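call fold(seq) -> tokens
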Amino acid sequence: MYDRILVPVENSPYDAAILGHVRQLAKMCHASVVLIHVADGFAARNVSSLQLRESEEMRHDLEYLERICEELRRDGLDADCVLAGGDPAREIVDAAQREACDLIAMSTHGHRFMKDLIHGSVANEVRHSTEVPVLLVRGKQESRA
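ret:
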């Protein structure tokens, strides 16, 4: 059914919900997993254009990605990770195409109307910007990745 699943993670407790689903789905489909975290701080958004060094935030994010990737590999999954910088929705959509993913699986916060207006919704932007199927799983703030 699926060969390659892109999983955006944000280095928060919400990641546990999607990672639990993806572990099972990837095993069932014999799919590989590509984790992506989009650092969106000033340094991450401008690292190339301003020739900036990698920030402490970016180093921390990469360590997090690599740790989860290794956990997935120990579970018997083929897993890779990508650290991107910039607009999260755009980077996720671009990565799905670049990495030849046939599913994007992401956790949502379950915001309601006002919070989405204030904070925006990466999941909503992704689902409207890609032709790749998107699986959304509502995360729980108190869960741990």
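DSSP finds six helices and five strands in the chain.
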